[in-house]
Amino acid sequence: MKPHDYRDLIAAYLDATFSAHRVVVYTEVSLGKTIIGKNRKLDVLALRKSDQRALAIETKYQQVPGTTDEKIPYALLDLEALWIPGCLVYAGEGWSEGVLHTLQGSRRAVHCLPERPELTRTAATRELDHVVAAVFGFWDHVIPEERLFSKSLQLSLALKGPKKAEARPALETKKVASEEG
After folding, report:
1. 75-127 residue pLDDT tens
2. DSSP helix/strand/coil, 60
3. Alpha helix segments (H runs only) across the chain
4. What gap in Å lies between CA 99 and CA 72, rounded to an integer?
5. pTM, to two decimals
6. Residue 26: which residues within 8 A CB-CB, separation 6 or more?
7. Could you report how far apart the first and last alpha carbons of the chain are, in Å?
8. Labelling 87: which of 14, 24, 35, 148 has CA 20 to 30 A away?
9. Residue 3 CB neighbour total at 10 angstroms
């Protein structure tokens, strides 16, 4: 799989899974500068226009050992410098053991390998699903209803507060002394 094929796979997965929630997906988006001052081009940008929430995504696929390993520390640091939430989405069998440990231990890196043609949520997309849920608030996508501890309403105590004031009957007014006379 070529780098742009993996980028497009991730973009297609995000579009298929989250477009119903009004998330739009862009590829090759220019956004600011990198940590070394170069113009930044994001692989994927997921955006919900209604509230302007966004997620920047860099994609890395490594099928055989190679130079992509050397780019990972820089890519992770560069994501830290973004002004919006971002993550590195990776897959492939060619990662060195050391870099794979770095990716697995980073809160900015998630493994994701959607299956074509379905592009449905699976165990292989779970890590990216969790990031999308955190950024956009789509917890219903990652927390199954059957995991709810109690389906009954939470216990609520009926508290007796102060009594409502009742209107007093009108007092009879005293007759003026001249009328008593």
Report:
1. 999 999 899 999 999 999 988 899 999 999 999 999 999 998 989 898 999 99
2. strand
3. 3-18, 68-80, 97-105, 126-136, 177-180
4. 7
5. 0.78
6. 44, 45, 46, 47
7. 113
8. 148
9. 13
Least confident of 28-32, 40-44, 138-142: 138-142
CA 43 from centroid of its chain's CA atoms: 18
Mapped onto helix, strand or coil, the DSSP state of residue 42 is strand
Q: Is the dihedral of CA 148, 55, 111, 106 positive or negative?
A: negative
| CA–CA distance, 139 with 50 (Å, rounded to integer) | 18
Token pair 């927390």 is found at 143
Burial of residue 17 (CB within 10 Å: 0-12, 13-18, 19+) is buried
pLDDT in tens, 46-65: 999 999 999 999 999 988 88
Query: How is residue 2 written in tokens?
Result: 């070529």
Asked whether 77 and 35 are in contact (CB, 8 A), the reply is yes
Per-residue b or e along 128-144, where b marks 16 or more CB atoms closer than 10 Å to that residue's CB: bbbbbbebbebeebeee
Count of CB atoms within 10 A of residue 96's CB? 15
Name the residue with tokens 């870099």. 99
